[in-house]
TrEMBL record:
Record bears the keyword Transmembrane: yes
Subcellular location(s) per record: Cell membrane
One cellular component term from this protein's GO annotations in UniProt: plasma membrane
Source organism superkingdom: Bacteria
Name of the molecule in the record: Oligosaccharide flippase family protein
Organism of this sequence: Rubrobacter marinus
Signal peptide: none
Lineage of the species this protein comes from: Bacteria, Bacillati, Actinomycetota, Rubrobacteria, Rubrobacterales
Transmembrane parts of this sequence: 20-45, 57-78, 99-120, 132-154, 166-189, 195-217, 238-266, 272-296
Pfam families in the record: Polysacc_synt
Keywords on record: Cell membrane, Membrane, Transmembrane, Transmembrane helix
Membrane topology field: Multi-pass membrane protein
């Protein structure tokens, strides 16, 4: 705690406030527009697709999101940590190595999960969800899965650079704008369409966002110097961080989507369409927590890295900070004298590595 406070000097605190304000505005505005875009997409899909196809679309979107989480291998959030802490420690070469490792391995994972879904998708759609319309577009769902995984990874890398503006834009806003515009144009021209056409438009919107994000990120990384031989971010180090994040993300997403999957397995696609459209209406409620998750992670990673650097640069700094900390001086006389003036009936205090009971 004291190391973090020491790292937050007036100039650093001013920069922190600036990042919180700017990042919060961009994240809130972007998330609000993305949520409104998703509502507009649902309204257009309800007019473009038959009820059975709309239910199959909601199931496809849920499966694609799950596959995108698995395909990213947790590297999207790991990249935020390593890039943010590397830039905070003034090690741009280390940040460059973290970006290249995350994109290379994450891109391979995205391609792998798409290929894995090809043989499993038809069986899952035909036997578990009993949705022939979903089984007929297995290849498109696999491609959409790979695109979404890569798109999420690229957006989180920008977040690691504290570029909340680009992270918000490439994290879903640009895709929502392109998808909404293409669906609106299709509705104005045709009036009705098929599930395959809708998925092709979704893939095209996501691929456009991913291509632009990759081009911008390539220019940004090219300006960074190459790392030195020591102190780099290795693949094993990154995977050790990404593994628990992957398990957590998959677990949480499964818990939140289990209701839709159960409904899809036991009820008709028309009922899935109604339930999926109703569930999408609550996205605006979650905007504040999305804003917090968009802005704080890179700041926390950078401050943690700076505090760790301060600890390691001063011998025996943790011991001295413990001796100066208020809890140490508050508890030490009470334990030695057996003072009960604090009003605690029972307390356990650690002094110099020993437990002291006070009753």
């Amino acid at each position: 705690m004291w190391a973090v406070r020491a790292a937050m000097k007036p100039a650093g605190f001013s920069l922190l406030k600036q990042r919180l304000l700017s990042g919060g505005i961009w994240a809130f505005t972007g998330r609000l527009l993305t949520s409104l875009g998703q509502l507009a997409i649902n309204a257009l899909l309800a007019r473009l697709l038959a009820p059975q196809d709309l239910g199959a679309y909601f199931l496809a979107f849920s499966v694609v999101t799950l596959g995108a989480i698995a395909g990213s291998l947790g590297l999207n959030q790991a990249a935020v940590r390593f890039v943010a802490e590397s830039m905070g420690l003034d090690q741009p070469g280390r940040a460059r190595r973290a970006v290249t490792t995350a994109v290379a391995v994450g891109g391979t994972g995205a391609l792998g999960v798409g290929l894995l879904y090809l043989p499993l998708g038809y069986y899952l759609s035909a036997n578990f969800f009993r949705a022939p319309a979903l089984a007929a577009v297995t290849g498109l769902v696999a491609g959409w899965m790979a695109i979404m995984a890569l798109q999420s990874l690229l957006a989180e890398v920008f977040r690691g650079f504290h570029d909340i503006r680009l992270a918000t834009l490439f994290g879903g806003l640009l895709t929502a704008i392109a998808f909404t515009g293409s669906l609106g144009l299709l509705w104005w021209i045709e009036g009705r369409t098929t599930l395959a056409v809708v998925l092709i438009l979704a893939i095209g919107s996501g691929a456009t966002s991913a291509l632009i994000a990759g081009w911008v990120l390539r220019r940004k990384v090219a300006a960074l110097p190459r790392e030195r031989a020591e102190g780099g971010v290795g693949l094993g180090q990154m995977l050790r961080v990404a593994g628990p994040l992957l398990v957590t993300n998959l677990t949480l997403f499964t818990l939140t989507q289990a209701d839709l999957w159960i409904l899809g397995a036991f009820r008709s696609q028309e009922e899935v369409a109604v339930y999926g459209a109703a569930a999408r209406l609550v996205v605006l409620v979650a905007v504040p927590i999305f804003v917090v998750n968009a802005v704080l992670p890179p700041m926390i990673a950078e401050m943690h890295a700076r505090a760790g650097s301060a600890n390691s640069s001063t011998p025996f700094a943790p011991q001295r900070r413990w001796r100066r900390s208020p809890p140490y001086w508050r508890f030490r006389p009470s334990c030695w004298r057996g003072d009960l003036s604090s009003g605690w009936s029972t307390a356990i205090t650690t002094v110099k590595g020993r437990r002291c009971w006070r009753c």
